[in-house]
Design brief:
The protein has 831 residues and is of the alpha/beta class. Helix content is 49%, strand content 16%. The chain starts with 6 loop residues before the first helix and ends in a 7-residue tail after the last helix. The structure holds (1S)-1,5-anhydro-1-(4-chloro-2,5-dihydroxyphenyl)-D-glucitol. The site of (1S)-1,5-anhydro-1-(4-chloro-2,5-dihydroxyphenyl)-D-glucitol (Z15) has 19 residues, from helix 7.
Length: 831
């Protein structure tokens, strides 16, 4: 409370703010102070890890100041807030990012060096915050960076998992998972708010009573109460004082013990039940694009949503504004269907707790929420058994049935007697048992629904949600093409390229306005500039080659073409097709004479990515890649023209080393299956060309960078259904080149072929659902075009420069402005 502050304290605080000076000497003073006090270590005994911690704590002090000032100024201005609800935030490391965004890198870097440390070694001590699986979680992290950098008054809400995405190791070429206990040491990037808590209840029953006005009111009395504790993660903007917050909830048992149970001698069991509370936020579910219907996952979702909404509503109530103003003050974005229960929870708060009439409440709810869909894969669609929802959340289940009833009544009015349409639109799937279709609930409870790339947004309107377009019209559905933050994915991951760009453009303005990269176009034929461009790429390749040597033992030649596919392992992403084409290449090389091989472009084919622990086929793909690598890499008869590596434990900080080093990266999903993809943007921004299918954001990248600078192949999305039909009902002969490769595997060339038969069977008895055979021929042709193009190094460099120059559209700043203007109606609010 400001009014009650002692003026002495205020004046001290103001002095602090004025004296704030982040020069080298002040940094070093703070560094030493943190070593001796925060870390309680002696100055005679500082290793790299202590140096990291002391630097991190110095940056943390700075972040906290800016965080406080930002929150204070937002409270005063009280603008419309944006809330981004995401079950995943894949942040990666924070130190380097914070140093760059706060403009401290230079002074602190010198300070660290001066004390006898190498900044790279210090930065390398940090463990990744890996609270996400892949694209969806990383997108949330990029969006927070842009929200902060553009001065939006925004909050992220998520869960503070004790274990992030598992660590991947390889044993005999097989993936093995290890727990990611990332909080083993103190985490300087979070502010525990042990006083900010919310009680979240589960189970129990709903009682009805009639209030003084004769209205029937519902009271939900849970039989299980769990405490949500807030941990705040400050997110600094680039080139602004704005520092926003991601609030992550951690589950704790309520301290109130049931005395009766203890007296009855059930102490052990009572404590056991208390411990179950901590289970809720213990572990991130490791599936990407795949729904697993575990009860604990549903509990995570409600726990998170209930705590977050309570917080949001509490903040609104403090302003004293009437409920009708809620949608003018609050925009809530649902990152996929994971937070859909928030819609139901807000309706419950408004009707049951605040006493609003149903229709009035529902109007507020639908004007508050907007929903982003990230996939059309059927196995990823969330649906929860009605009995499970009714058991854990009895009142929510009632509300869902009521929402559905009123919704279907409106459908019925517009389309009388169309029972088929009612069944298709219903929030409830009429199976045994019934299921709640979360995407349907999210659409009905939101004012806008968006896809994440043009093709994807069109597909949702014509496939999975086409009946909703019939009812609502198509204006409810829109597109916001994904974006990536140029701060992390160019400035930070590729400092040499960043510096070169800054030098020729004469300023760092491109970091705030990525479209200004188009000024690079005029240097695409500049001899001197091209030389520098090549030098940067080459040094990034050397850096990656060293990383590969230390982490796989394989020696690769930095002069070879680096061909990279790194992403979650999934059948739809077709890493299988890639490794099959590697076998094809290997066999061709073996058939050549050594003179012929002299003219061949040397390739290093690099894979990386995690498979969900329960995804058997994906894990077999990893094994096949490693089996092929083993045979190819030790075969001296092919004169080093081909190397294959699988980089273990792909994550954000490994991506920062891999992405700047690519010549070609592969984004080769079956057309229509990859909603957007975002690593495609990162590679091209770093001057890597791409080999891709006509899918997701590849299409828009193609539009921006032009035909000459991209290698596209394969069947189009609108051909996929017919092709699948043909595989199912006709005898489609397998592509002959593919058949040869299959025969080669089956001959035992890459180890016991029986291991791989479930994988091979997906192509034959599995009807080749992802159309590898249909695309194989055009894939091989596109690969040949890549080889040919790479022979002309000078022209390749020109293409590389043009790629970077034309990527302005794919900044997450552009994406966030679109959300703010077209969906949230939110304005920046600078501190
Ligand atoms: C995920 O990472 C994505 C979609 C999902 O439905 C889930 Cl559960 C996880 C990815 C898409 O596969 C990818 O194409 C997209 O670029 C990314 O979300 C961000 O929109």
């Amino acid at each position: 409370d400001q009014a009650s502050l002692d003026p002495k304290i205020v004046s001290l605080w103001e002095k602090c703010a004025v004296n704030e000076n982040n020069d080298k000497e002040n940094f070093q003073r703070s560094f030493v102070r943190h070593v001796t006090t925060t870390l309680a270590r002696s100055v005679y005994n500082i290793d790299n890890f202590s140096a990291y911690q002391a630097t991190a704590h110095t940056v943390r002090d700075q972040l906290i100041k800016q965080w406080n000032e930002t929150q204070q100024s937002h409270t005063e201005a009280d603008p419309k807030r944006v809330y981004y609800l995401s079950l995943e935030f894949l942040l990666g490391r924070s130190l380097d990012n914070a140093l760059l965004n706060l403009g401290l890198k230079e002074n602190f870097g010198e300070g660290v060096k001066d004390l006898g440390f190498r900044m790279e070694d210090v930065l390398d001590e940090e463990v990744d915050a890996a609270l996400g699986n892949g694209g969806l979680g990383r997108l949330a992290a990029c969006y927070m960076d842009s929200l902060a950098s553009l001065d939006y008054p925004a909050w992220g809400y998520g869960l503070r998992y004790t274990y992030g995405i598992f660590q991947q190791r390889l044993n005999d070429g097989y993936q093995v998972e290890f727990p990611d206990y990332w909080l083993n040491f103190d985490n300087p990037w979070e502010l525990p708010r042990l006083d900010v808590t919310v009680d979240v209840q589960f189970g129990g029953s709903v009682n009805k009573y009639t209030d003084e006005d004769g209205r029937v009111r519902h009271v939900w009395e849970g039989n299980d109460v769990i405490k949500a504790v807030a941990y705040d993660v400050p997110i600094p903007g680039y080139g602004t004082k704005n520092c926003i917050n991601i609030r992550l909830w951690s589950s704790k048992p309520k301290r109130q013990f049931d005395l009766g149970r203890f007296n009855a001698g059930e102490y052990e069991q009572a404590v056991q039940e208390q411990m179950q509370a901590e289970n809720i936020t213990a572990v991130l579910y490791p599936n990407d694009n795949h729904m697993v219907g575990k009860e604990l996952r549903l509990k995570q979702q409600y726990f998170w949503v209930a705590a977050s909404l309570h917080d949001i509503v509490r903040r609104f109530i403090k302003t004293g504004k009437p409920w009708s103003k809620f949608p003018d003050q609050v925009a809530i974005q649902l990152n996929d269907t994971h937070p859909t229960l928030a819609i139901v929870e807000l309706q419950r708060i408004l009707v049951d707790l605040e006493g609003l009439k149903w229709d009035e409440a529902w109007d507020i709810v639908t004007r508050t929420f907007a929903f982003t869909n990230h996939t059309i894969l059927p196995e990823a669609m969330e649906k929860w058994p009605v009995p499970m929802v009714a058991y854990l959340l009895p009142r929510h289940m009632q509300i869902i049935f009521d929402v559905n009833l009123f919704f279907l009544q409106k459908v019925e009015k517009l389309f009388p007697d169309d029972r088929d349409l009612l069944a298709k639109l219903s929030i409830i799937e009429e199976a045994t048992p019934q299921f709640v279709r979360m995407a349907h609930l999210a659409i009905v409870g939101s004012h806008q629904v968006n896809g994440v790339a043009e093709l994807h947004s069109n597909l949702i309107k014509t496939t999975i949600f086409k009946d909703f377009v019939k009812f609502y019209g198509s204006e409810k559905f829109t597109n916001v093409t994904n974006g990536i933050t140029p701060r992390r994915w160019l400035h930070q991951a590729n400092p040499k390229l960043g510096d070169l760009i800054t030098e020729v453009l004469g300023s760092k303005n491109w970091l705030k306005d990525l479209s200004s990269l188009n000024q690079l176009e005029k240097f695409a034929d500049d001899k001197e500039f091209k030389k520098q461009w090549v030098t940067v790429k080459r040094s990034n390749k050397v850096r990656l080659a060293e990383y590969i040597k230390t982490h796989t033992g394989v020696v690769v030649n930095p002069n070879a073409l680096f061909d990279i596919q790194v992403k979650r392992i999934h059948e739809y992403k077709r890493q299988f097709m890639n490794i099959l084409s590697v076998i094809h290449r290997y066999n061709s090389l073996k058939k050549m004479s050594s003179e012929e091989r002299c003219d061949v472009v040397k390739r290093v084919i690099i894979f990386g990515g995690k498979a969900a622990p329960g995804y058997y086929i994906a894990k077999l793909v990893i094994k096949l890649i490693n089996s092929v690598a083993e045979v190819v890499n030790k075969d001296e008869s092919i004169d080093d023209t081909l190397k294959v590596v699988f980089i273990p434990d792909y994550n954000v900080s490994v991506a920062e080393i891999i992405i700047p080093a690519s010549d070609i990266s592969q984004h080769i999903s079956t057309a229509g299956t990859e909603a957007s993809g975002t690593s495609n943007m990162k590679f091209v921004l770093n001057g890597g060309l791409i080999l891709g299918t006509v899918d997701g954001a590849n299409i828009e990248i193609h539009e921006e960078i032009g035909d000459d600078n991209i290698f596209m192949f394969g069947n189009l999305a609108d051909q996929v259904e017919d092709l699948r039909h043909a595989h199912r009902y006709r005898n489609v002969p397998i592509d002959p080149a593919l058949q040869e490769v299959i025969n080669d595997i089956e001959s035992g060339h890459f180890g016991d072929s029986r291991i791989f038969s479930p994988l091979i069977n997906t192509l034959t008895i599995g009807k080749d659902y992802y159309l590898i055979s249909d695309d194989f021929g055009s894939y091989l042709s596109a690969q040949n075009l890549v080889d040919e193009a790479y022979k002309n190094q000078d022209d390749w460099t020109r293409k590389s420069i043009l790629c970077t120059a034309r990527m302005g559209k794919f900044s997450s700043d552009r994406a966030i402005k679109e959300y703010a203007n077209r969906i949230w109606n939110a304005k920046p609010c600078s501190t």
